[in-house]
Amino acid sequence: MSNLGEIDKNKLHLKNKLHLMSKPDSDRGKLQRICLNLLREHRKQGPDGLPTNNRFLAYELMQRRIIVKRNEKGKRRGDQNMHEALTHLRETGIVPWGWLDDESRNIIFNPCWDSLTEWGTTMVEYARLNPWGGRPPRTITESRAVAGVLKNLSDEYRFPVIPTGGQCGGWLRTDVAPQLEPGDRVFYVGDLDLSGGQIEANTKAVLERLIGGELDWTRIALTERQVDLYKLRKWAIT
Questions:
Q1: What is the pLDDT of residue 36?
Q2: 205 and 213 in contact (C-beta within 8 Å)?
Q3: How far apart are CA 226 and CA 167, in angstroms?
Q4: Is the pLDDT at 94 greater than 70, yes or no?
Q5: What is the signed CA dihedral for 226, 52, 29, 69, rounded to 10 degrees?
Q6: What value does the mean pLDDT of the chain take?
Q7: CA torsion sign, 80 to 83 to 84 to 85?
Q8: What pLDDT, on the 0 to 100 scale, is given for residue 15?
Q9: CA distances (Å), 20 to each of 8, 17, 86, 99, in order?
Q10: What burial class does residue 27 get, using C-beta atoms within 10 Å of its C-beta: 0-12 exposed, 13-18 middle, 19+ buried?
């Protein structure tokens, strides 16, 4: 039974956790076990693996033909069943709540200190020198979830990651453009489809117009070469 994952031993002994899942021959029970195995795959990848959030898990299950992206009108979406399965696994203590990330919500922190000495001794741990010999490149991602993949790299190599959450206008003007200058390097990560191309083109055009010059823009993922190299077309979600 050890292949069913870690557990909070304060709530339930390892050998007794199976009874908290739905029956293995039921649709709910099957999906709960599939989700549990998928979560374990993510845990094995470590901190530099794919982000473990509901959206990424749903895409993976769609690629494996376990759930569908769109159901017939009036029927439940496949990801609704997945959300219920994941909630069940966490509410029963089979997996910890912290195994899943939520990049769509953040706490706004405004730290303060009792003295300048406390501030200095606290923040010196986080001081980093610029390794780029100039302005660091900006990495813009179409998806907020994809930005989670880059968090560890951005922490190590000190470059900003800017998730747009798809097509947007106001945020590009109020928050993103003020960080850019003509000639800045921008790495872009987006979907390789019609809408993904349109989102990228609009994002680039808006930003260049606002800053009054061209950006050194490079799409680093997803590209046609990557799709062919890693044989990704078979995983396309339609």
A1: 93
A2: no
A3: 23
A4: yes
A5: -50
A6: 86
A7: positive
A8: 47
A9: 13, 6, 13, 18
A10: exposed
Q: What is the 3-state secondary structure (H, E, C) of 77-146?
A: CHHHHHHHHHHHHHHCCCCCHHHCCCCCCCCCCCCCCCCHHHHHHHHHHHCCCCCCCCCCCEEEECCHHH
Count of beta carbons in the 10 Å neighbourhood of residue 19? 8
Which residue ranges form the domains of the chain, and what is each CATH number? 2-99 (no CATH), 116-235 (3.40.1360.10)
| CA-based nearest residue to 106, from 47, 140, 158, 147 | 147
Query: pTM of this prediction?
Result: 0.73
Q: If you average pLDDT over residues 47-75, what whole number do you get? A: 80
Structure tokens, 70: 């769109």
Select from 185, 203, 186 the least CA-distant residue to 195: 203
Longest dimension (CA), the chain: 64
The answer on pLDDT for 63 being more than 90 is no
In the predicted structure, residue 141 carries a pLDDT above the cut 60: yes
Residue with tokens 């076990």: 33
d(CA 68, CA 63): 9
What one-letter code names the amino acid at 48? D
The one-letter amino acid code at 124 reads V
Instruction: Using the Cα atoms of residue 130, residue 135, residue 139 and residue 145 in order, give the sign of their dihedral.
Output: positive
Confidence at residue 5, expressed as pLDDT on a 0 to 100 scale: 42
pLDDT per position as a tens digit, 152-183 = 889 999 999 999 988 998 999 999 999 999 99
